[in-house]
Amino acid sequence: MSYARLGILAVYMSGARLEELPYYKKLTAEGKKLGLQIEVFTPTDVDNKETIRTLRYDSETGKWVRKRTTFPPVIYDRCRYHGPATFRLLKAFRNKFSRLTYLSKPLANKWTMHQVLSESAAISSHLPATVRYSGPQELIRFLKKHKLIYVKPKNGTGGRGILRIEQTDADRYLIQGRNQQRTIISPLRASEKQLSTKLHSLNLSADYVVQQGISLTLKDGRVHDYRLLIQKNGKGKWEVTGCAGRIGPYKSITSNLHGGGSAIPMEKLLYSRFQSRSKIEQIKNEIYRFAHELAPFLETKFGKLCELGIDIAVDPKGNVWLLEVNPKPSREVFHRIGEKETYRKAIKRPLEYALWMMKQRNHSDKDSESKDLESKAAAENKDGENSEAEK
Question: Which residues cross the membrane (predicted)?
């Protein structure tokens, strides 16, 4: 059987460890069923002759095999942000190899994303108030207005470096959060003066955003949100693959699974809060409608996209809020809640979309070739007519 080739653009973590290698193994298994050969590589695996050293998973031996080859026709970029050095490496790769066909384009940092999304009236109504960090006094004024805020690095994922600050009384504030290693830091209760001193000591900068907090605390004190996955299907159309709830561990301000959070079916989490089937259905419909509004809008601003992980908050009144958009989402939340078919679909859809893109490109190439032949034939006929006229 002849296999089409799909490249996975990855990034090395510490040493020679590739991020998401178990996921690439699952992609290989699903790809084989669809006639796709999965080939994993990083920007550092490209040599001067523009050939690459790719990794292919051999299911018979259970090992990854290295092979030198040419670039695959389509690239699935799975590189997440891991600091400025990685960002520069990936940016240089994309600039140098802009001729390659990618399943999706990168999105912007949190601040730029907020500005872009604010341009849409339909989307901006779901955005928490957000400003760029400009000093302790401005932050405290913003906090007094909203009573609960989050301070986030404009780049980064997984809940790293996020602070939650709540005004609990006239001159009392509660500071919680995680450091850059995702470790939960000890909660601190402080006066306004102590809060200002603490903020000075954290060396925050304009690389942080300050965001209105949405009340996400459950009865047991843990925070929660919802992760929705919307993907392009095998016809190139956006389709919601699934949505699940996430609950953070005790004393955590985030619900990320990598930070120790747990997963729960969407309807079960909604029912625990609203107990009304009609209300739950209304909220679900609004979340799905919003996802279908958001995905095409982002494509108009950033170019072709393949999938989006959308983090959603639902406040105590049932209003839907956008917390974050991730263009390189995990899909483990569906595995955690036992939705095996949704999980498998979440793995397959980027592969089906890649095959659809390859077919579109083949049709485009054939159309171009046909037009070239038609132009050549027309030119030959014109030359023949001119020759007859000269006689």
Answer: none
How far are the Cα atoms of 124, 359, 366, 379 from residue 372, in angstroms, in the given order? 47, 20, 10, 10
Candidate ranges 31-35, 87-91, 370-374; pick with highest mean pLDDT: 31-35
**CA atoms of 161 and 328, how far apart (whole Å):** 20
Residue 324 contacts residue 316 (beta carbons within 8 Å): no
Where exactly are the structural domains of the chain?
Answer: 4-102, 110-126+218-350, 130-212
In the block, residue with structure tokens 């601190």: 188
What token pair was written down for 51? 């050939």
Q: Which residues of 63-85 are buried (b: 16+ CB within 10 A; e: fewer)?
A: ebeeeeeebbbbbbbbbbbbeee
Residue 342 structure tokens: 């949704």
Task: Say which CATH topology domain 4-102 has.
Answer: Rossmann fold (3.40.50)
| CB within 8 Å of 372: residues ≥ 6 apart | none
- Alpha helices of 100-237 — where are they, by DSSP H? 110-117, 121-124, 136-146, 192-201
Q: Which CATH superfamily is domain 110-126+218-350 in?
A: ATP-grasp fold, B domain (3.30.470.20)
CB 78 within 8 A of CB 42: no
pLDDT at 317: 95
Q: Which amino acid makes up residue 15?
A: G
Tokens, residue 142: 């913003």
For residue 244, give both structure tokens.
């699940």
d(CA 118, CA 135): 23
Which of 223, 83, 253 is closest to 153 using CA atoms? Answer: 83
Host H or E run for residue 42 = none
Q: How many beta carbons lie within 10 A of that of residue 369, not counting itself?
A: 10
Alpha helices (H) along the chain = 21-34, 84-96, 110-117, 121-124, 136-146, 192-201, 266-274, 277-302, 332-336, 340-390
Q: How far apart are CA 307 and CA 387, in angstroms?
A: 58
Q: What is the pLDDT of residues 163-209, one digit of tens each?
A: 999 999 999 999 998 776 777 778 889 999 999 999 988 888 999 99
pLDDT per residue over 33-60, tens digit each? 999 999 999 999 998 777 999 999 999 9
What value does the mean pLDDT of the chain take? Answer: 89
Compute φ and ψ for 253, nearest 5 degrees: -95, -5
